[in-house]
Specification:
The complex is a heterodimer of chains A (423) and B (154). With 423 residues, chain A is of the alpha/beta class. Chain A is 43% helix and 11% strand. A 4-stranded parallel beta sheet of chain A has the order 3-2-1-4, with helices on both faces. In chain A, helix 15 runs antiparallel to helix 16. The longest helix of chain A has 18 residues. Chain A is globular and about 75 Å long. With 154 residues, chain B is an alpha+beta fold. Helices cover 46% and strands 12% of the residues of chain B. Chain B has a 4-stranded mixed beta sheet with strand order 2-1-3-4, covered by helices on one side. The longest helix of chain B is centred in the first third of the chain and has 12 residues. The chains are: A alpha/beta (423), B alpha+beta (154). At the A-B interface, strand 5, strand 8 and helix 13 of A face helix 2, helix 4 and helix 5 of B.
Chain lengths: 423, 154
């Protein structure tokens, strides 16, 4: 099985340096794109490959690039979203620490496709090792003429900068990220205009996730059909899937899109730890709807997980076991979303702390049956279309599905006036 | 008053952007790097240097969780309270640290050695429970491990 993204990653040793990566075939895509292809040809190739954004939303990458106006001479920007903060998610970190040159190569090609002359990597402050490795790799690339002026003698110029975040989950929302890069509070912007038209400093900007950008060089080298052939479903490509919680072997694996949840959970994560039973899982980070036993044969892909009313999200699963209280689980998750709300719009700013207070009351045995109606009402107020960005709708996803699948547990907390999981 | 060193570092950052206020977050980080936290006076100094209002700088400073607007101890312990760490038992680790150091989240020890803060998901979920002290990550925490780690920073 091909594992293009992780083939050169060995977490126990240092990542390949530039020379080693080039010897292994790295940067061949950069040569090909900059020397033999026009920017439009690169964009069309990525469009044809059907590469869907790996940050969680699954928007077609080539389509995003094609929205950038190409007829005007003006500054344009490429931004790599490396602000990984989705609870339970640790995939971008693996790529950043394990093979920074793969990302840089992808970014050079992506920037060339939209003719950006400046690229930023918006990196989570906590990823110290990733920062060190990235800065080292970028300076190697500058020294080798792969960044800076007149790259590989083609006349194309690109500057690349690392920007360290100062915390806050909302920075992962692409327009909030742009405000943060401009030195402002990270509050999402109105769309339209989309960043492709008016983004960083008011100029056309493309924001792509780390895992998405890591694909670009491979697609240029090997073609769209090769990429499509890597998955078991129609989407194309492999995906980094992760599992955390009470399983025998928590970790991260690169597998074809369309691999079933059961295979990831049992064959790769080794199944539940002895003495722990499976109750449910969030398939792609904290902002995705719960799935339960009956969904274990669902294929992990954007459309197949959506078909069972959840989202593949980041593809890193969090497992709920039978010794963890589902109400306490949700209380933890909703507290995170309440703390991380930017505070701009009402359903999110006011609704989430209300949800947290109620969950806390239920968990501590002070819940009432009418609390369940209030929680359900809040998930409707926070539904897509009622809020300014996707933060509150994301927070509503585990809550609405958790209340549905674990209804009896909510009721037993209220009836017994205590948490059945606490002694 | 900002030191000459701080001013030089901030001005180097402003050069990267089309206008000075875009370096606001960088400036806050630079001051915090030198002083450990950002005081009201520093907020005003940064505002003046970047041609911003005090309120705008304050708005940015209070928005970001890694800008400290109160003094912190010599070592900042950031204990992950994310969902994967909760499942793997961060709460008992918290109680252990809290009892050992005699402080709760948000507090600093009397000898100014440690400040204890919660931190959302550190991306160490497959090695939970996790924490950071200053710039270092620690995984698979147990009571014994925590005791050993805290010794390093004494």
């Amino acid at each position: 099985m091909e594992r293009p993204l992780t083939q050169h990653i060995h977490p126990e040793s240092s990542p390949l340096n530039l020379k080693e990566y080039q010897q292994a075939g790295g940067y061949a895509g950069v040569q090909k794109a900059l020397k033999d292809m026009t920017p439009a040809e690169v964009t069309n190739l990525v469009k044809t490959s059907n590469l869907l954004g790996r940050g969680g939303a699954g928007f077609p990458t080539g389509v995003k690039w094609s929205l950038v106006p190409m007829d005007k001479e003006e500054p344009k920007y490429l931004v790599c979203n490396a602000d990984e903060m989705e609870p339970g998610t640790f995939k971008d970190r693996y790529l950043l620490e394990g093979n920074p040159h793969q990302l840089i190569a992808g970014m050079i090609i992506a920037a060339y496709a939209i003719q950006a002359q400046t690229a930023y990597i918006f990196l989570r402050w906590a990823y110290k090792k990733a920062e060190t490795e990235l800065r080292k790799a970028i300076s190697e690339a500058y020294a080798a003429g792969l960044l800076g002026k007149n790259i590989l003698g083609t006349g194309y110029n690109l500057e690349m900068n690392v920007h360290l975040s100062a915390g806050r989950y909302i920075c992962g929302e692409e327009t909030a990220l742009l405000n943060s890069l401009e030195g402002k509070r990270a509050i999402p912007r109105t769309k339209p205009p989309f960043p492709a038209i008016s983004g960083l400093f008011g100029k056309p900007t493309v924001v792509n996730n780390v895992e998405t950008l890591c694909w670009i060089s491979h697609i240029v080298e090997n073609g769209a059909d090769w990429f499509k052939g890597l998955s078991l479903t129609e989407t194309g490509g492999t995906k980094l899937f992760g599992v955390s919680g009470k399983v025998k072997n928590p970790g991260l694996w690169e597998l074809p899109l369309g691999t079933t949840i059961r295979e990831i959970l049992e064959d790769h994560a080794g199944g539940m730890l002895d003495g722990y039973g499976f109750r449910g899982l969030l398939p792609g980070g904290a902002s995705t709807d719960f799935l339960i036993e009956e969904h274990l044969d669902v294929k992990m892909d954007f459309s197949t997980v959506s078909a069972v009313k959840s989202r593949m999200g980041t593809g890193t699963m969090i497992i709920l076991d039978d010794k963890t209280c589902p109400v306490a689980f949700l209380h933890n998750v909703e507290k995170f979303f309440a703390l991380e709300s930017c505070g701009f719009c009402t359903p999110c700013r006011e609704g989430l702390p209300w949800v947290v207070k109620i969950l806390e009351a239920i968990e501590n045995g002070n819940g009432r049956m009418e609390h369940l109606d209030i929680l359900k009402q809040q998930t409707r107020y926070m539904a897509p279309g009622n809020t300014f960005c996707a933060h509150a709708p994301g927070a509503a996803e585990p809550l609405q599905s958790g209340m549905n699948y674990f209804h009896d547990d909510f009721v037993s907390h209220i009836k017994e006036k205590k948490c059945p999981w606490k002694p | 008053m900002l030191s000459e060193e701080e001013k030089t570092e901030i001005q180097k950052e402003t050069g990267q952007y089309p206008y000075p206020s875009a370096a606001c977050i960088d400036a806050l980080k630079i001051v915090q790097h030198h002083r450990g936290w950002v005081s009201d006076e520093s907020v005003k100094d940064i505002a003046q240097l970047l041609n911003m209002s005090n309120e705008d700088v304050e708005g940015v400073a209070t928005f970001y969780s890694r800008i400290y607007r109160k003094p912190v101890g010599r070592n900042v312990i950031l204990l992950c309270d994310g969902i994967s760490c909760m499942i793997m038992g961060y709460e008992s680790i918290y109680e252990h640290i809290s009892k050992k150091l005699g402080i709760s989240f948000g507090q600093t020890t009397a000898d100014n050695l440690y400040t204890l803060l919660p931190i959302s998901c550190l991306g160490d979920c497959d090695h939970a429970p996790s924490m950071m002290i200053n710039n270092d990550h620690f995984n698979h925490l147990t009571f014994e491990e925590v005791d050993k780690i805290l010794e390093i920073y004494k």
